[in-house]
Amino acid sequence: MAIEDRDNVHVITHALARDTLSTLRDTSTAQVSFRKGLVKLGRVCGYEIIDGAMETEYVPVTTPLTEITGERLTGLDDVVIINVLRAATPFVEGLLKAFPSARQGIISAGRDEQAGMDEDGTFPISIDYVKLPDINPEDTVIVADPMLATGSTMCAVLEEVLDNQPDPENLFVLSAVSAPDGVLRVDEAVPTATLLTVALDDHLDEDGYIVPGLGDAGDRAFGTD
Ligand code: URA
């Protein structure tokens, strides 16, 4: 099925997200502005998740002038954000502005080049570090990685998350930029996940970089190469 026809794949179209992503893509954006851009994008994406997925309840509110019925978000205390090291760190910093009471998990995963290439030409993923809070069935879980490229790392990360809690209320895979291969792979591996991305890019190059993409998000955010 084409990506556009999948119900659980959504492109975040907020104008501030599109504006910020253009800054991130621009090669003239230096490290500090890049990192701040990822923080800003995380915040906007967090607000979009609140708008699309969180419920509100009616509550009485007393204004200085009268009594009205106001609305309060419910579920903000049942949010878990998973930081897929390392590029997600500034992205998660922004998400935390939208979900200040979220519990946080950290997963470090990477290509295991020593294990040799798999038959499909990709390297297996080694999970180097996992620290997750207890995830409850009523939780909204947001797994954040700014770049969804081949999807191999994300699939390995999701296995860890689902081992902890197989059926969270909401499971979001959030990225800034996605490649079609990654979206299809994650969607097929974990159909219960909702994939959110600010841009669905064209393809992966032979080194696994997303094109047009924004380069190596971790290196650009942390000033390494
Ligand atoms: N990771 C990145 O940082 N950039 C890509 O283009 C792909 C994976």
UniProtKB/TrEMBL annotation:
Pathway: Pyrimidine metabolism; UMP biosynthesis via salvage pathway; UMP from uracil: step 1/1. Allosterically activated by GTP. Its EC number is 2.4.2.9. Its cofactor is Mg(2+). Pfam families: UPRTase (PF14681). It comes from the Archaea. GO terms for biological process: UMP salvage; uracil salvage. CDD domains: PRTases_typeI (cd06223). Residues 11-224 form the Phosphoribosyltransferase domain. GTP binds at K36, G37, L38, V39, K40. Uracil binds at I210, G215, D216, A217. 5-phospho-alpha-D-ribose 1-diphosphate binds at R86, R111, D145, P146, M147, L148, A149, T150, G151, S152, T153, D216. GO terms for molecular function: GTP binding; magnesium ion binding; uracil phosphoribosyltransferase activity. Keywords: Allosteric enzyme, Glycosyltransferase, GTP-binding, Magnesium, Nucleotide-binding, Transferase. Binds 1 Mg(2+) ion per subunit. The magnesium is bound as Mg-PRPP. It catalyses: UMP + diphosphate = 5-phospho-alpha-D-ribose 1-diphosphate + uracil. InterPro entries: PRTase-like, PRTase_dom, Upp_A, UPRT. Belongs to the UPRTase family. Catalyzes the conversion of uracil and 5-phospho-alpha-D-ribose 1-diphosphate (PRPP) to UMP and diphosphate. This is Uracil phosphoribosyltransferase.
